[in-house]
Specification:
This protein is mostly helical. The protein has one domain. The chain has a two-stranded antiparallel ribbon with strand order 1-2. Strand 1 and strand 2 form a beta hairpin. Helix 8 packs antiparallel against helix 9.
């Protein structure tokens, strides 16, 4: 099984399109953070203009932690698209390239092949999130230094977290973000199991994400009871790491719901794959 996982990892990371998401992040994050550096914190002045009439703010609030937080807050709707490039290609890519029969002639069961592809998807997702974390935080701190973190967001209100209380929260936030992205990659793997074009899972995953997001945020009373069952209602799990105090009950609920979606998607993909009639 270990050799099979290694083979799938080598096959995945040998493809150039696997690095498309990394390349996009490698371009966007430095450009955005350098732009923040050159802008000199004017966006923060505008953001705090309303608060300045009622509060007296001291300390260095324009720092690397703030920029890292803004990067997380602005990119998480686009990250699923980048992750689905690889997750959606795991099974559908075999059909597109016509190699299904070839891989199934090996003395391994379909379940073992599926598990290897699932593990590969997990490894890619974790590496991608870790890459984003290291690049965005490392570069932001190098450019702008450290300080207190100003947090303004849904579910957190307005907080100023002391500098010594920030690093562990970012680590926790990216762990939560990785869990959310594993849900996206699992859904993409599910769609990948019953289509024969690698583009299909990407479009389907983004379609589900967009529809669920719209239903999650629409201020319609009829949809209120439905929101608790939509995975997109919990995709901001990472933001819980910046609440003070952290609501562990809400974190647990989000972890369980997202985990349930992931498990259901992976189980569905496995059932389809093991029963799939391979014609090419």
């Amino acid at each position: 099984m270990t050799r099979l996982v290694l083979y799938e990892l080598l096959k995945t990371f040998w493809k150039k399109r696997t690095y498309l998401g990394f390349a996009v992040v490698l371009v966007i994050v430095p450009v955005v953070e350098v732009a923040f550096k050159l802008e000199g914190g004017r966006f923060l002045t505008v953001m705090l203009r309303g608060l300045a009439r009622d509060f007296y703010l001291v300390g260095n609030l324009f720092n690397g932690w703030l920029i890292s937080f803004q990067i997380m807050n602005s990119l998480w709707f686009h990250i699923p698209l980048l992750i689905s490039f690889v997750a959606g290609d795991q099974l559908a890519g075999e059909a597109t390239s016509g190699t299904y029969r070839l891989i199934l002639t090996r003395p391994t069961s379909r379940s073992e092949i599926f598990v290897a592809k699932w593990i590969t998807t997990i490894v890619y997702t974790v590496l991608f999130v870790a890459f984003l974390a290291v690049l965005s935080i490392g570069l932001a701190l190098a450019l702008l230094g450290r300080g207190d973190l100003l947090v303004i967001g849904r579910g957190t209100g307005i907080l100023i977290l002391p500098g010594q209380d920030v690093a562990w929260r970012f680590i926790l936030a990216y762990i939560f973000a990785g869990w959310s992205m594993l849900t996206i990659s699992s859904i993409s793997l599910f769609f990948s199991s019953f289509v024969e074009n690698a583009i299909g899972p990407i479009v389907a995953t983004m379609g589900v994400l967009i529809v669920s997001t719209v239903l999650s945020v629409l201020p319609v009373e009829v949809l209120a009871s439905l929101r608790g069952y939509l995975f997109t209602s919990y995709m901001d799990l990472w933001l819980r790491a910046f609440a003070d105090p952290i609501s562990w009950d809400r974190v647990r609920e989000a972890v369980l719901v997202l985990g349930g979606y992931s498990a259901a998607s992976v189980l569905g993909a496995w059932l389809i794959f093991v029963r799939k009639d391979i014609l090419s």
